Amino acid sequence: MKKIACFLFLLCLALNGCAKKEKPVAVVNGVAISDAEVQRVLNRKLKLLGQANATAADRRETIDALVNRKLLCQEGIRLGIRLAAGEVDAEMNRVRAKFPDENAFMAALKGEGLDREGFRREIEEGVVVSKAEERIATVAPPSETEAKRYFDGHKEDFRVPPKYRVYLAQAGGEDEARRLLEKFRKIPTAFDREALEKGAPELRNINKNAVLTLRTDFPDEMHPFLDRLKEGEFGGPVKTRRGWFVFRLLERTDGMQKAWQEVKGDISHMLFREQRDHAVKVWLTRQRAKVAVTYPASQ
What domains are defined for the chain? Predict the structure, then answer.
């Protein structure tokens, strides 16, 4: 047990990312968080959200999340959590499988300032944190009655939205869009040729690969047209952030309400996660009130 605790302690120290030459952004019970680690996590968040730049609030939230992560890692040490043989390898392989080949995988690691060993340490910490959360949040799964009550009160959340398949044509302005619309209503096949053979290459490619797409994935400005059009009819002119468009609705599927039996497992899992996350949040709040967390970089 002492060897396991020692290993986990060294793991957390190795993962603190604090380079000797830089002042740490934060120190949690003696474990440092470097600016490089903050930036790595922040860059992932920006990529996920499609943001180009981080705000001061984004950075504060990232530092706060890393402080919580270190606290959970340290709790894992205290609890003597063991890492099962092959557990870390399995998680590493799961991430690696998302890349087409080894070169792409290593290039992605390099882009984040990691080598293979650094990536492994990061995965190890994640496993320890996850196990610590499970031990902290000893909550019972919700009963079927609780899950059904949630379903009855949130049925709109379990509706399958309508889907639409369209061809798009872009115009230089509203007047041109109206002229195109009038022309294509008279000769619908001309619109298909326009969509597939003319216009910007990117838009032609979108049209060639058009599939049934959720209503929510279309610009809000298109929704009123999509809701009332029949298959084969034209919509527009519509102005989006990318300019003026007219479009033709090729195919549609109506939305539908999912049945209780279809979603009860998902609801039970969701409610259990919410209860567990709340328990972890309460624990972290108490820890933050009594442990030593300093922010040297801001001093």
Answer: 2-136 (1.10.4030.10), 162-254 (3.10.50.40)
Q: Is the bond preceding 237 in cis, omega lying within 30 degrees of 0?
A: yes
- Per the DSSP assignment, residues forming a β-bridge with 26 are 33
Distance CA 246, CA 259 (A): 36
CA–CA gap between residue 166 and residue 232 (Å, rounded): 9
At 233, list the tokens: 């009819």
* Cα–Cα–Cα angle for 5, 80, 19, rounded to 5 degrees: 45
Answer whether 203's CB lies under 8 Å from 137's CB.
no
Under a CB-based contact definition with an 8 Å cutoff, are residues 207 and 193 in contact?
no
Pick from 146, 128, 147: which is nearest to 136 by CA? 128
Per-residue pLDDT, averaged over 230-257, amounts to 93
Count CA atoms within 13 Å of residue 2 on its CB side. 0
Token pair recorded at residue 207: 């049209």
pLDDT tens digits, 118-159: 999 999 999 999 999 999 998 889 999 999 999 999 998 999
In angstroms, the first-to-last Cα distance of the chain is 39
